[in-house]
Amino acid sequence: MNHQTIIDWKLSSINNDLTAELILTDEMQQYIEANPELVKELAFIDAFWQQDNQELPSNELDKRFYKMLLQAQTTQQNIETSQVVKQPQQSSIFTGVKNWLSASSIKPFAQFATLGLVFFLGFNANQNSNSVSQQEKNLVANSGIENLQQEVSSLSAMLALSMLDKSSAAERLTGVAYSQQTDLTDPLLMKTLMSTLEHDRSTAVKLAIINTLNHLPDISEQESQILALAVKENNTLVKVELCSLLLNVGSQETKNELLKILNESELNPDMADFLQRINAISHI
Amino acid sequence: MKKFNLALLGLTLSTLMQSAYAIEKTYSLPLSNPGEPVSLEIEVHTGAIYIEGFDGESIEVSATMEEIETNELNKIERIIKDVSAELNDGRGNNIEKIGEIISGHKNKHKRKQRSTEGLKSVKNNSMQLEIEEEDNEIEISSEYSTQNVILHIKVPKRTRLDIELYKGGDVEINNISGAIEAEAFKGNIIASGVSGPMVAETHNTDIVVSFDKLNQKNPTSLTSHSGNIDITINKNTAAKVNVQSYKGEILSGLATEFIASEDVQRKNKGGKQKIVIGGMMSAEVNGGGQDITLATYNGNVYVRSK
């Protein structure tokens, strides 16, 4: 039993191709439960599969897919043999994959096959990452893997964007979780997260986004917007978290401005007390 | 003493509401596409919602609708507002004071009565409850604040639920394996035999959920502003349980310890590094799995294992 067995089962079950050998057994279930990262990969597959696009692609698009698959396999072989990986070629593959995923007409089977490809590369990139890091001499190969990981991260950002647009709060939460798996450098993703933080009706989604912002190495670009949101927010839970974020990691100017505004506004006494305590702790 | 006074107030209000009358209706909607995914969206202004999952391929709705007379409703709302204000000021702390408040309220809101000579009362029996089904997507709504709607609904277990209840009683959900979203502004949300993902939110009331198993596809998040959050999970469920209560207690029956979940090393532009310990606590149960996040401002968090 390994990850690939489970992923094969998942892809077959999504494609309604269940055979006696591919029915989910208790052993497989236990294996899934014992591997949280695999659970996330399966969720990723599901999320991609559930896109509402049922249109069939043109023959040309199908040919393009198999061409990309061939190119990707070649790239993968190059990595495994630690040979020099030409970055432009790899970029073109993933750019092609991304463009293709963005296309309005994607055949479901081809879509999941591409997904399988992305995971195959992603898994191998991760697995190779450990061994290659031990072979620091092969800097070129490392560069290729980093590029590969960046592309996978970029695909995660695309998925996050897609999920953040869903009507279901649970799916938007999943979108926030996927955004945490990226490096959050995608400007469109960050803009969408901030917009969702401002407008989403679910407290849970807002709190999850604030938690995501907490993982940023630097929030200076978002500080003014977070400050504005913190001031106008009526939801106590969200307001407290926004203020905590700013008081913990904001610039001194922003902290001062926030405290000034809070002192001048009529706050719930409990919340005012709480914020004062957070501020006191943040100076330690 | 305050509890007793509030009970007295409740009695007064229930007496005022006795003039309401009820209509009971039952409906059975066969699904357009049996065996396919089902979704049920409910939006009720005032009432209570009870949902039970079953093995059928139809939606069974039993609705009890009571009219809340507008004048009485307005009167009740004004009394509640006045009494709440007095209680918050610390003045309404005994029965006599409550009586004085209500008497004062009557004088305060006294209106000149119009003549009713030669007129008879016409009861409004056009209470509205909309139920729509198309391609297994069902919508039930009652958006009038003048009617109290109590819904008992049976749906296929796999049904995905989206529920909003503004006033009245509780939302109760049993034996549902589909995704659940629920928001109750004045009542509790109580669910058992569910597997999530579940996103639920209350303001002043509790959220009590007993998970049968846990959906590993999407995260579960339960949020309350002033209510308690009480969950029970199976002892063999794999999950990452995140808990946060700003002013309440966190009580756990899990074998796994909760630890501060954020331990973030930062590097700002100037090269300054900082470690921030966040307010969220996490426990990786059975090796960890999908997230269950429980956050409340004033309430307690209870995490139980069965």
Describe what is shown at a glance.
By secondary structure, chain A is mainly α. Chain A has 14 helices and no strands. Helices cover 75% and strands 0% of the residues of chain A.
Characterization of the model:
The complex is a heterodimer of chains A (284) and B (306). In chain A, 75% of the residues lie in helices and 0% in strands. Chain A has 284 residues and is an all-alpha fold. In chain A, α4 packs antiparallel against α5 (87-102), α8 packs parallel to α10 and α12 (236-249) runs parallel beside α14. The model of chain A is unreliable at 52-58, 80-92 and 102-109 (pLDDT under 50). Chain B has 306 residues and is an alpha/beta fold. Helices cover 16% and strands 46% of the residues of chain B. Chain B is built from three helices and 21 strands. Chain B has helices spanning 2-16, 70-88, 95-108; strands at residues 22-30, 39-54, 58-67, 130-134, 137-142, 147-156, 160-174, 180-184, 189-194, 198-202, 207-211, 220-224, 229-233, 239-245, 250-252, 259-260, 263-267, 273-277, 281-285, 290-296, 301-305. In chain B, a hairpin with a 2-residue loop joins β4 and β5 (137-142). The longest helix of chain B has 19 residues, at 70-88. Chain B is flat and about 75 Å long. The A-B interface holds A 32-34, 36, 39, 42-43, 46, 168-171, 173-174, 177, 202-204, 207-208, 211, 214-215, 217-218, 220, 235-237, 240, 244, 248-249, 270, 274 and B 160, 162, 179, 181, 196-199, 201, 216-223, 225, 238, 240, 246-247, 262, 264, 266-269, 274, 276, 278-280, 286-291, 293, 295-298.
* Radius of gyration of chain A from CA coordinates: 23 Å
Order of helices and strands of chain B: HEEEHHEEEEEEEEEEEEEEEEEE
Annotation, overall tally of beta strands of chain A:
0
The chain pair forming the largest interface, with residue counts per chain, is: A-B, 35 and 44 residues
What order do the SSEs of chain A take from the amino end to the carboxyl end, as H and E? Answer: HHHHHHHHHHHHHH
Tell me the span between the first and last alpha carbons of chain B. Answer: 37 Å
Strand percentage of chain A, roughly? Answer: under 5%
The helix fraction of chain B, in percent, is: 10-25%
Assembly form of the protein: heterodimer
Helix-and-strand structural type of chain B: alpha/beta
Strand-residue proportion of chain B: over 45%
